[in-house]
Amino acid sequence: MIAHILPLADFTAPKIEYSELSPLLVVFGAACVGVLAEAFLPRPLRHLVQLTITVVAVLVSGVLTGMLMNDNKELIAAQGAISVDGPALFTWLVLLALTLISVLLFAERSVDGGLSAFAGQAAAVPGSEAEREGTAAKVEHTEIFPLTLFAVGGMMLFASANDLLVLFVALEVFSLPLYLLCGLARRRRLISQEAAMKYFLLGAFSSAFLLFGIALLYGYAGTMSLGGISDALSTQTGGDTILLAGTGLVAVGLLFKVGAVPFHSWTPDVYQGAPTPVTGFMAACTKIAAFIGLMRVFYVALGGTRWDWAPMMWIVAILTMVVGSVVAITQTDVKRMLAYSSIAHAGFLLTAFVGLAQAGNGVHNGITSTQAVLFYLVSYGFATVGAFAVVTLVRDAGGEATHLSRWAGLGKKSPLLAGIFAFFLLSFAGIPLTAGFTGKWAVFSAAWTGGAWPLVVVAVLSSLVAAFFYVRVIVLMFFSDLPADAPDVALPGWQTTSAVALGLAATVVLGLVPGPLLDLAARAGEFIR
C-alpha cells in the first residue's frame, strides 16, 4: 500500500500570536526553568535562585500585560483558543500582583525560628526521625516556587480560555499544584495532608462533572469554541435536553472552584489545613480566576440561554450568601471563619453575575456587572492576602494560634497588628471608607440595574449578619482581657511586612479613591467573542 502524502500547499501552519501571549509564556517558561533549577542546583542555592526566578517572571509578565493593556489589545489568539481582551488582561495583572505578594509570604523564614511555613520533606512521615532530621537541618521545599508559577499560569489561562477544552486543561494546570501546596504545612502536618486529600478528591469529582458537561455541550454544538456554542444556540432548534444537562454540569464544575453553596464543603477544611500563605494565595487568586472563567463561559457561550440558567444561579447566589454568613457566626477558628467569609463574598459576586443576565444584552447606563466584579475581586483579593499574612504572626508553642479564644486581648498586646486586622475585617464587612464598601456598592448597583433587586435585598441582609461576626472578632481583640498564656506576636521579616503593608495600602486607597480602578475596569470592557 502506498501512503498518500498531502501536498505541502494543503497544510496550513497554525498562527500563534506570541507577543500577545507573552505574559503566559513567560510564567510557564519560568516555571519550567524552576523545575530544572530544582533538579540541578545544590540545595543551599535553591531558595534564593527559585525566589529570584519567580519574582522576575511575575514582574516581567506584569510589565508585558500592562503594555498590552495600554495598547488596547483585543483578539482571539492561538487559533481561537485564548481570548486576549480587556477582562482577561485586567485579570492577568491582578493575579500577578497578588501572586507577588503571596510569594513574599512563601519566602518568609523569620517568624518561625528561621524556618518557612512549608515542610522540609513532604514524603517524611509526620513525627518520624526523618522529619526531625530535616527540621534540624532546616531543609526546605523550594519546589513551592515553580508550583506557584504553574498555578498562576493556569489561572491566567483559565480566565482567558475561549475554548472549553483549553478551559479544562487550564483548570487542571492550576488545580494540581494547589493540591500539592495545601499538603506541605510544616506544622500540623496531618491536618494539612487531610486538607490536601479532601481538596484533591472533591476537586477531581468536580472536574469529572465539568468534563462531562463539556462533552454534552460539544455534542449539542459540534464545537468547543465559546463563540461557536453561542452561534449554535441561535441556529439549532433541537437538543435542548443535552444543552441543559451540559450547562448544569459545567456550572457544577465552575461553581466548585468559586466556592459557592452547595459545592463549598471543601473550603473551610482546606483553608484551615493548608499552610497559611497558601491559603491566602488560594483564597484570593483562585476565586478571581474562577469567577472570570465562569462569567466568560456563561456570558459568551451560554448567553442565549440565560433565561434557562438564571433561576439556578439565583438559587445558588441566595444559598451562598445566607449559608456563608450564618455558618461563619458559629466558627471558633480564624481561618475557618475567613473561609465562610469567602463563601459569603462569592454569593455577593454572584448577585452582579446574575444581574447582567436579567438586563438582557448588557447595562448601558451605569456600572456593568463585569466592571463591578473586576473591582470587587481586586478589593477582596488584597484584603484577603493581607488578613492571612496577619494570621501567620499570632503564634504560640504549637505554631499559629488560630483559635478565636487565643486572639482575646490581642489589641492590648499588639495594637498595631490588631488594628490592621480589624481594618481588613471592616473592609470585608463593607464599612464605608474601605475598599470592601465600594466593592459591595458596585456589585449591588450592577445587580439592581440588571433587575435582580430581590438578590440585592438578600445580599444587604446577609451583609448585616456578616458584619456581626466581623465585629465580634474586633470586640474580642480590643475589649477582652489579655490572658496569662496569651500567644506571642512574631516579629515579621521584610517579606511579611511588605505583604501586610501592600494589602493595607490597597484596601485604604481603593476605599478612599476608587475612581481610577473603576475607570480601568470600565475600560476593560466586555468579553469578546
UniProtKB/TrEMBL annotation:
Keyword Membrane among record annotations: yes
Which of the seven top EC classes does this enzyme belong to?
Answer: translocase
Give the reactions, separated by semicolons, that this protein catalyses.
Answer: a quinone + NADH + 5 H(+)(in) = a quinol + NAD(+) + 4 H(+)(out)
Gene Ontology MF, one = quinone binding
Q: What membrane topology term does the record carry?
A: Multi-pass membrane protein
Q: Known EC number(s)?
A: 7.1.1.-
> What GO cellular-component annotations does this UniProt entry give?
endomembrane system; plasma membrane
**Sorted alphabetically, which InterPro entries does this protein's record hold?**
NADH-Q_OxRdtase_suN/2 (IPR010096), ND/Mrp_TM (IPR001750)
Where does it mainly reside?
Answer: membrane
- Keywords for this entry? Cell membrane, Membrane, NAD, Oxidoreductase, Quinone, Translocase, Transmembrane, Transmembrane helix, Transport
- Alphabetically, which GO biological process terms does the record hold? ATP synthesis coupled electron transport
Q: Which residue windows are transmembrane per the record?
A: 21-41, 48-69, 89-107, 144-161, 167-187, 199-221, 241-266, 278-299, 311-330, 337-360, 372-394, 415-435, 455-479
| NADH:quinone oxidoreductase/Mrp antiporter transmembrane domain span | 161-464
| Pfam families the UniProt entry points to | Proton_antipo_M
List the PANTHER family hit by this protein, alphabetically. Answer: NADH DEHYDROGENASE
Give the family per the record: Belongs to the complex I subunit 2 family.
Q: What task does this protein carry out?
A: NDH-1 shuttles electrons from NADH, via FMN and iron-sulfur (Fe-S) centers, to quinones in the respiratory chain. The immediate electron acceptor for the enzyme in this species is believed to be a menaquinone. Couples the redox reaction to proton translocation (for every two electrons transferred, four hydrogen ions are translocated across the cytoplasmic membrane), and thus conserves the redox energy in a proton gradient.
The entry's protein name is: NADH-quinone oxidoreductase subunit N
Q: Which organism is it from?
A: Kribbella pittospori
The major lineage groups are: Bacteria, Bacillati, Actinomycetota, Actinomycetes, Propionibacteriales
The encoding gene: nuoN
